[in-house]
Design brief:
The complex is a heterodimer of chains A (about 120) and B (about 170). By secondary structure, chain A is of the alpha+beta class. Helices cover about 20% and strands about 40% of the residues of chain A. Chain B has one domain: Orthogonal Bundle (Arp2/3 complex 21 kDa subunit ARPC3), CATH 1.10.1760. In chain B, about 45% of the residues are buried.
Amino acid sequence: MKKKSFLWGLLLALIVAAGLLLYGKLGRGEGMVAVVSVNGEVLERIDLSKVREAYDLDVATDFGRNIVHVEPGAISVTHADCPDQICVMQGRLSSNGIPIICMPNRLVISIEGGDIDG
Amino acid sequence: MGKTKKLALMALLTAIALTIFVIENQIPAPVPVPGVKLGLANIITLIAIKLLGKREAGAVLLVRILMGAMFAGSPSTLLFSAAGGALAYLVMCLTLRFFGDDQLWIVSALAGLAHNAGQLAACMLVVKTPGVLAYGPVLAASGVVTGVFTGFAAQFLLKALNKAKL
């Protein structure tokens, strides 16, 4: 019994270690096109390399409201009406990185490669 | 255990789980990763399975998730917590028989893993963005860590409850 517990502990520790090591390495989008979607529907595709001046995008849907800040080379969420504010804490997403997610409002911002009109 | 006592205990556990759930929701997220939570209410699910049985614990869990979404969450997060909760419950029911009372932390860790997997799968289905899979590894890690923590909590609580001869 004791040995079995130890082995399980080891296995679980390995899962934790592997998870932490792989986090941020898998699923990175490479490119300059930010895709803003809510509930699986793409609302905007923004080529961040072509943004000259920073502006705010007001994303208001049935699920909630987020203010998305678009600036040259980066995108972030500056306001969310959800309780957890995780998307705001996730900070800026630029040429590569894992998606910003606001689960309660079903908002996802991810980075894709390629040209918009390509 | 008599019917009345069982019903009273189920109601008590549901109220406790709901209270824990609502209070936990007030704690700001410790890390900017969607889906990472302590999951303290799972302590009660484990306790309910051990004290009352699988069916009764399932009922407690169902009411907690539904009322939890009413009191604390939003209707759109109900889907995620239901998917996670259901999968965690399933894993608890399936694995509990293989582990002793001093190994509840292992059951709970596996349940935590399953919870986050279910949550991520539901999220994938809804947002239709494969990129959210990037959160898989960290959610696996956090599911195990919080699962071990809540598992030990359940273990100690169960020990105390058995001594008190509830």
